[in-house]
Amino acid sequence: MNLFKEVADIKTADQLDLPTPEVEYHNIVVKPTEHQQDMVKALSERAARVHSGTVDPSEDNMLKITSDGRKLGLDQRIINPILPDEPGTKVNQCVDNILQIWRDGQPEKLTQLVFCDISTPQAAGSKKVAKTLDNPILHALEQAVPEPEKPLAFTVYEDIRQKLIAQGMPASQIAFIHEANTEVRKKELFSKVRSGQVRVLLGSTQKMGAGTNVQDLLVALHDLDCPWRPGDVGRILRTFKIKRMWR
Q1: How far apart are CA 89 and CA 85, in angstroms?
Q2: DSSP of 208-228, one letter per residue?
């Protein structure tokens, strides 16, 4: 950092004192379901066995327990898909907030970002190859070769999309950043968000973080799970057109 300061003039936000938008932070607290409470007790018992040294690290360890705890905190169905979808969960509360803001922002076509690093959608095999073939012709080629349909595993992303559609939001206004698996598609998607054609964009911190310039009509940002780095929070603050901010 000292070497970098020899060739760069570094100014912090406090030193620059630039005008920033007025932001409303909403920390939505939801009560755990009975299933979540029972599963948290099971996590505690697993942690006690790990600390006592009675479990081989290859079978269970604190990293696995922490990972399961983060999944459980988001939605119990990530741990066990057959568990019920209860109305008061974090995901359902987020869906309600997205819908309310979507309805309020209809006249201006205001847009929203939803960040979620857990339970992300999995890309199909042929689409993984597309990452190295950044060519518009690929669109036609993929459509020409039909793929066998596979049953979709539960993901929070798809759950949110289906619930938004069921409440009246057009499917064309909802997008996953994971679907834009080439630079051409990413530019096309970002353009649609900036123009308000896509009004809800879901993605992970890694894929929808730095370099995601879609803030022209952004009105709200939802963080479903907490990222690891403080700098990953508040991406929406780069624009001066914010009306609200949900977390």
Answers
A1: 8
A2: SSTT---GGGEEEEEESS--S
**How many angstroms separate the CA atoms of 164 and 119, rounded?**
18
Q: Give a yes or no: residue 230 inside a domain.
A: yes
- pLDDT for 20-68, tens place per residue? 667 788 888 899 999 999 999 999 999 999 999 999 999 999 999 999 9
| CA pair distance 186, 191, nearest whole angstrom | 9
Q: Does residue 172 fall inside a structural domain?
A: yes
Instruction: For residue 198, tell me if it sits in a domain.
Output: yes
> Which DSSP string do the residues of 40-56 spell out, in sequence order?
HHHHHHHHHHHHHT-S-
Q: Is residue 130 part of a domain?
A: yes
Maximum CA extent, the chain: 61
Which burial class, exposed, middle or buried, applies to 25 when counting CB atoms under 10 A from its CB (0-12, 13-18, 19+)? exposed
Confidence band, pLDDT 50/70/90 cuts, at residue 237: low
Distance CA 15, CA 135 (A): 44
Asked if 116 contacts 43 with a C-beta cutoff of 8 angstroms, the reply is no
Question: How many domains is the chain partitioned into structurally?
Answer: 1
Distance CA 71, CA 81 (A): 12
CA distance linking residue 44 with residue 104, whole number of Å: 43
